[in-house]
């Protein structure tokens, strides 16, 4: 029954040269067009902080910031982001100084296994950048693209509310 | 999962010429649906034509005769939070924000939203028959697990639903889809853009293979005073609608002067009923009249077992959302029923 | 002396910084040179035989190294026994790529190995298979006539079958003053940790492997690999320092481990295999079950008969069971009982323990039935539980080592505001919402497994604690560090707990809420030995003031050993090691349950959950607006991480009651929503206000720490409390989980 995916293109496909600024550093990769930004980060640039949970845009674990906005790296092709500025979880802290959201996650025990955490943190920073969430209910709604199977939801929202309302975020 | 070539189009002309000469090429904008389908072996493009850099597609601008033009390449989130959309077309804003997640809305384009494919389990599984995927192979959804499937406008070949929230609002607002192609430009009324499955369930809409959506026009009337979007689903966010309703009212006192009601999650396209809307005009905006309208909208609705509940649910939702539209401030995040 | 104790204090997770910065490495994330990538091919057929495999198109793709299938796989161990893991149910273990037979849909049928992930993934779809399909059965309801008791085996020790009937159940039930009879249906659930199952195998040469694996049991998987592939135990090292959730799915070695190791040995190269999300639905799940409940009481609410008959799914190759039927008798006295657990073998993969296996399924039925009974009796649901309260486990007739369930009931009821409840269904409203209050009891076993721990005091004052356990997000690292620090009077910074490594001393897999009591007790035992050795060494020093001191005469604090009678007399632990010429002083000891003493007791944790729901009066949508769960689980080592365990499992309860279900299309014989978009687990928007209380429960009998484990108890009561609250709100009893909101219209 299955459709066998076929390579229908006639010419051989050459690797594309892609340059992005990742966590403030310019990086160039020579990459096939079908490599996702997620696999590019993890396999090609050894930035494994960004997680693969579903690879289909259904869990949010792969969330990164692209030009300041939160996106899903699993549904993004690396080639589509030539010239973009990407921030992954590895680029959130300034050296040893944790971002207030990171510290709040620790303080509120906002994770257990830690696997969804990088996505939650990038998403939370994206949410704060957007500035669209006021109430706790709105924060919950706008964070709902990030699943947590351990059930650390309460701590995650507490952490975000504290940073949002506590003025420790600029 | 096949390999594909990739090319960025510099302008609309180039985009059209690239696709015109390659039967198996696909445009990619946000990629949120296409890349997903490709990973599931359902889309099999030989080449992706990246249209993210097409300046013509990337604007939201007011139209001379009133109304607003939404560039097809503008992201869903940027559309929902655009000041004019928030102000003049809050129904559209609410509907967009009820769909997907913040991340996906930051990626997904307006044009792409119209072209989303169904989330039918059987369509999404390349190993099982599906008339939409492989015409003539059969439809296991009809007597399978069809909780999420259509109750209106189905055919013996397909009972899939169109999953968009944004399009439910666009249907209610009588938007117009602007298209360009090798032979020039054309426009399609929103109601005529998507199609019912009939005997060609493989075709979701009336866009031709080598055409590109450039923008979506909203008429001047945005129903900003009385509107509501209600989305009912198996969790409070980040799930597709089982039933959704967009209601736009123009009231004089409590009398309905004008009304648009569109349903999502129930058919192969956003569902409208002229009969129901005509009935409501001149009537009092109350539960009783919304109930009669609901019956008119749901005329001919038919369940397939697991989705039988949608008929009753849709009726309740239409009535409730009509009442919510009287008090738009009552709407909650995620288009949940009012408190 | 208690000044610097850390046990009982809320300590933030010690690995927190690694997790929030992305530095924590999971199984698929180790940078390994010359790494090959494996991609699994899954069977599209539910039952039958592979009649032909043509790999030529796949092999022709540049970058493809090998396609392994049953036709060309290397020779493997032959006997089932060699494939047995510590958690294998009775039966024949599934052996990947063993022969041409297809036993279930999604079964791995080939592994493509390529230079990069994308090539392997593409090539996985370029293999041409031919199948001979056979008729299959995957629907529990359609096959109830095949129900039979499970075979007994190795794993039966932890999961005994229900006890024989007592009294005259049928007569008692027939003649009872008040009775409830109902049938509950539970669907399939999948564990779905967010981390995909993955293995990275480093081929070290000379029959030696280092394996980074996603598992709850490093030693379990080490033995499994060594047995199958004929390797020496010491040459197989399994590491799993970070595990991205597991919830039971990592209790058994999964097939990606097998395939990855097979490929690495065959190709003599480093290989990684990562499953995709759809494949995460192709091994192990919580089985669907049908439960027939018959409870009866006298007019005063005293239970007279308890009947609980369960039929659950298993595979056609292993007899999986979970503890279900006898829980009611562990809570409530009744002279007449009838408990049965039967299984129906189907063409699916073997089910497996999933967070609170059996308990969460059974307690839903039990506590909903109790609620229904309370309405028939017109007795408050909480009151009915108190009427039937017992400090003795009625199933075994043994007293509990401790049972602060009464305190749980009362404290949670108080905090929740249970007294404000109008018992009449549909009587409480808030705007458009019907409001319901519901409550339920939870009970779970307090397990302890044998464990070995090595303690090593180093010259720099650092205490190294070695044990093979994992930390699947439970807080094990933090909790063990606390225990060890207190035992030797050290600060947390001076303790280094090293874990997640099969080379470390023995630990069972991390399941059954048992690790705190297992490894924790072993630390206590080893610390006792280490203190003795340190004292002995100190006593050897010239004119040592410790010469005549016995174990009881000294205490350890702030890195020093003091004389109790004169605390000013002290020596630093560093100085003791320095005196030992800088050579660390170490000890390895076993901690184990005191079987002889504990034989006279029943061991369990308890909980009481109180839930408020809002149900929309028109469209039926349900929100768990708030919930309070009080837990009696003995000593709580770290209230912060323990609270997270309870909160997390309460959310699992919300999920089980309202969201998650794997949909089986029995005509196709496969799961249709094998993805996280359509397999719904709660999102942030679904979670209301959740509160946790730890009831004070001193247990001096159970083990040296007085701990009982908190990993699962928070889940067991919640689904029933939610269902009961929904009944209270709407007047509707829904016997099938998850409850779909449209049923409430």
From TrEMBL, chain A:
SUPFAM superfamilies to which the protein is assigned, alphabetical: 2Fe-2S ferredoxin-like (SSF54292), CO dehydrogenase ISP C-domain like (SSF47741)
Transmembrane segments: none
Pfam families with a match to the protein in the record: Fer2 (PF00111), Fer2_2 (PF01799)
Keyword Transmembrane assigned: no
2Fe-2S ferredoxin-type domain sequence ranges: 16-92
Keywords, alphabetical: Iron, Metal-binding, Oxidoreductase
Protein name (database record): (2Fe-2S)-binding protein
UniProt organism field: Pedobacter rhodius
Lineage: Bacteria, Pseudomonadati, Bacteroidota, Sphingobacteriia, Sphingobacteriales
Automatic annotation (TrEMBL), chain B:
Keyword rRNA-binding on entry: no
A Pfam family it matches: CO_deh_flav_C
All copies of domain FAD-binding PCMH-type, residue ranges: 1-223
InterPro entries recorded: CO_DH_flav_C, CO_DH_flav_C_dom_sf, Diverse_Substr_Oxidored, FAD-bd_PCMH, FAD-bd_PCMH-like_sf, FAD-bd_PCMH_sub1, FAD-bd_PCMH_sub2, Mopterin_DH_FAD-bd
Keyword Cell inner membrane in record: no
Record's keyword terms, sorted: FAD, Flavoprotein
This protein's name: Xanthine dehydrogenase family protein subunit M
Natural source organism: Pedobacter rhodius
Automatic annotation (TrEMBL), chain C:
Sequence ranges assigned to domain Aldehyde oxidase/xanthine dehydrogenase a/b hammerhead in this UniProt record: 21-135
Pfam families: Ald_Xan_dh_C, MoCoBD_1, MoCoBD_2
PANTHER family tied to this protein: DEHYDROGENASE (PTHR11908:SF153), XANTHINE DEHYDROGENASE (PTHR11908)
Protein name (Swiss-Prot/TrEMBL): Xanthine dehydrogenase family protein molybdopterin-binding subunit
Source organism of the structure: Pedobacter rhodius
């Amino acid at each position: 029954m299955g459709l066998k995916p076929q390579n229908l293109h006639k010419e051989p496909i050459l690797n594309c040269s892609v340059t992005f600024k990742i966590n403030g550093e310019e990086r160039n990769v020579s990459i096939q067009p079908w490599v996702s930004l997620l696999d590019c980060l993890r396999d090609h640039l050894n930035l494994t902080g960004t997680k693969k949970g579903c690879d289909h845009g259904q869990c949010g674990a792969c969330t990164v910031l692209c030009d300041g906005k939160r996106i899903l790296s699993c549904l993004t092709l690396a080639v589509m982001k030539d010239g973009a500025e990407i921030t992954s979880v590895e680029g959130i802290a300034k050296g040893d100084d944790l971002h207030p959201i990171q510290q709040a996650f620790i303080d509120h025990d906002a994770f257990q296994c830690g696997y969804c955490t990088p996505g939650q943190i990038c998403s939370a920073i994206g949410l704060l950048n957007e500035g669209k969430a006021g109430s706790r209910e709105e924060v919950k709604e706008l964070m709902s693209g990030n699943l947590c199977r351990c059930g650390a939801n309460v701590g995650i929202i507490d952490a975000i509310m504290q940073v949002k309302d506590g003025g420790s975020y600029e | 999962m096949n390999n594909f070539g990739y090319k960025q189009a510099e302008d609309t002309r180039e985009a059209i010429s690239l696709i015109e000469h390659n039967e198996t090429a696909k445009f990619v904008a946000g990629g949120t649906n296409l890349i997903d389908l490709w990973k599931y072996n359902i889309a099999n493009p030989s080449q992706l034509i990246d249209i993210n850099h097409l300046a013509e597609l990337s604007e939201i601008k007011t139209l001379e005769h009133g109304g607003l033009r939404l560039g097809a390449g503008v992201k869903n989130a940027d559309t929902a939070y655009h000041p004019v959309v928030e102000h003049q077309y809050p129904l559209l804003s609410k509907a967009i924000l009820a769909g997907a997640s913040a991340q996906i809305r930051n990626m997904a384009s307006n044009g792409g939203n119209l072209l989303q494919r169904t989330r039918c389990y059987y369509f999404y599984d390349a190993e099982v028959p599906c008339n939409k995927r492989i015409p003539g192979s059969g439809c296991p959804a009809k007597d399978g697990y069809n909780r999420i499937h259509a109750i209106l406008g189905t055919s013996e070949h397909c009972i899939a639903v169109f999953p968009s929230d944004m399009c439910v609002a666009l249907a209610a607002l009588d938007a117009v889809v602007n298209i360009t192609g090798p032979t020039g430009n054309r426009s399609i009324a929103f109601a005529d853009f998507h199609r019912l499955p009939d005997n060609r369930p493989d075709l979701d809409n009336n866009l031709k293979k080598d055409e590109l959506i450039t923008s979506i026009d909203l008429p001047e009337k945005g129903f900003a005073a009385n509107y509501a979007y209600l989305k009912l689903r198996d969790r409070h966010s980040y799930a597709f609608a089982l039933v959704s309703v967009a209601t736009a009212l123009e009231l004089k006192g409590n009398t309905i002067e004008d009304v648009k009601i569109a349903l999502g999650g129930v058919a192969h396209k956003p569902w409208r009923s002229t009969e129901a809307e005509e009935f409501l005009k001149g009537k009092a905006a109350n539960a009783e009249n919304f109930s009669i309208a609901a019956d008119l909208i749901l005329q001919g609705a038919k369940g397939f077992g697991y989705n039988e509940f949608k008929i009753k649910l849709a009726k309740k939702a239409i009535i409730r959302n009509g009442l919510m539209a009287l008090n738009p401030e009552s709407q909650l995040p995620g288009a949940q029923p009012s408190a | 002396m208690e000044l610097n104790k850390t046990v009982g204090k809320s300590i933030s997770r010690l690995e927190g910084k690694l997790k929030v910065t992305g530095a924590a490495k999971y199984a698929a994330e180790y940078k390994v040179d010359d790494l090959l990538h494996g991609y699994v091919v899954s069977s599209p057929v539910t039952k039958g035989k592979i009649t032909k495999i043509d790999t030529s198109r796949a092999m022709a793709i540049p970058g493809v190294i090998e396609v392994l299938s049953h036709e060309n796989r290397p020779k493997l161990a032959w006997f089932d026994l060699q494939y047995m893991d510590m958690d294998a149910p009775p039966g024949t273990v599934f052996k990947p790529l063993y022969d041409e037979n297809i036993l279930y849909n999604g079964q791995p049928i080939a592994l493509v190995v390529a230079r990069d992930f994308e090539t392997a993934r593409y090539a996985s779809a370029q293999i041409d298979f031919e199948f001979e399909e056979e008729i299959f059965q995957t629907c529990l309801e359609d096959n109830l006539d095949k129900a039979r008791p499970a075979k007994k085996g190795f794993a039966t020790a932890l999961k005994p079958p229900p006890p024989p009937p007592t009294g005259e159940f049928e007569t008692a039930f027939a003649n009872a003053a008040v009775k409830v009879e109902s049938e509950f249906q539970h669907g399939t659930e999948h564990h779905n940790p967010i981390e995909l199952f993955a293995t990275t195998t480093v081929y070290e040469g000379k029959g030696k492997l280092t394996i980074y694996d996603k598992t709850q049991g490093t030693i379990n998987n080490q033995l499994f690999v060594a047995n199958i592939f004929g390797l020496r135990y010491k040459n197989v090292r399994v590491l799993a320092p970070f595990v991205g959730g597991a919830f039971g799915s990592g209790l058994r070695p999964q097939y990606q481990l097998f395939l990855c190791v097979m490929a690495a040995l065959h190709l003599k190269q480093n290989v990684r295999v990562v499953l995709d999300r759809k494949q995460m639905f192709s091994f192990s799940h919580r089985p669907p079950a049908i439960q027939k409940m018959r409870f009866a009481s006298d007019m005063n609410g005293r239970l007279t008969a308890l009947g609980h008959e369960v039929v659950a799914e298993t595979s056609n190759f292993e007899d999986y069971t979970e503890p279900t039927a006898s829980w009611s008798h562990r809570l409530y006295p009744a002279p007449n009982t009838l408990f049965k657990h039967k299984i129906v073998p189907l063409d699916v993969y073997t089910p497996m323990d999933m967070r609170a296996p059996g308990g969460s399924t059974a307690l839903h039925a039990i506590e909903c039935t109790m609620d229904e009974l309370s309405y028939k009796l017109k007795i408050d649901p909480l009151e009915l539980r108190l009427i039937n309260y017992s400090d003795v486990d009625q199933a075994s007739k043994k007293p509990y080592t401790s049972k602060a369930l009464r305190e749980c009931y009362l404290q949670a009821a108080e905090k929740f505001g249970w007294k404000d409840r109008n018992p009449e269904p549909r009587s409480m409203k808030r705007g458009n919402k019907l409001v319901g209050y519901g409550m339920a009891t939870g009970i779970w076993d307090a397990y302890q497994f044998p464990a070995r721990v090595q303690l090593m005091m180093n010259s720099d004052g650092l205490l190294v604690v070695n044990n093979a356990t994992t930390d699947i997000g439970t807080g094990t690292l933090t909790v063990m560090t606390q225990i060890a620090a207190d035992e030797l009077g050290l600060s947390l910074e001076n303790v280094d707990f090293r874990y997640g490594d099969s080379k470390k001393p023995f630990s069972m897999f991390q399941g059954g809420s048992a690790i705190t009591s297992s490894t924790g007790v072993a630390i206590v035992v080893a610390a006792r030995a280490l203190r003795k050795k340190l004292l002995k060494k100190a006593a050897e020093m010239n004119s040592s003031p410790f010469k005549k001191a016995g174990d009881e005469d000294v205490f350890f604090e702030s890195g020093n050993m003091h004389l109790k009678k004169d605390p000013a007399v002290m020596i630093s632990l560093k100085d003791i090691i320095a005196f030992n010429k800088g050579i660390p002083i170490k000890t390895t000891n076993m901690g184990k349950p005191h079987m002889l003493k504990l034989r006279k007791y029943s061991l369990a944790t308890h909980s009481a959950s109180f839930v408020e729901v809002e149900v929309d009066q028109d469209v039926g949508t349900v929100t768990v607006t708030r919930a309070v769960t009080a837990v009696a689980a003995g000593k709580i080592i770290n209230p912060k991480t323990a609270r997270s365990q309870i909160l997390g499992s309460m959310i699992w309860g919300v999920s089980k009651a309202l969201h998650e279900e794997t949909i089986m299309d029995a005509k196709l014989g496969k799961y249709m929503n094998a993805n996280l978009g359509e397999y719904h687990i709660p999102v942030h928007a679904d979670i209301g206000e959740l509160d946790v209380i730890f009831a004070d429960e001193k247990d001096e009998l159970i083990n040296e720490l007085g701990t009982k484990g908190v990993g699962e108890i928070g889940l067991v009561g919640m689904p029933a409390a939610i269902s009961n609250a929904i009944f209270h709100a709407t007047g509707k009893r829904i016997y099938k989980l998850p409850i779909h909101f449209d049923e409430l219209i």
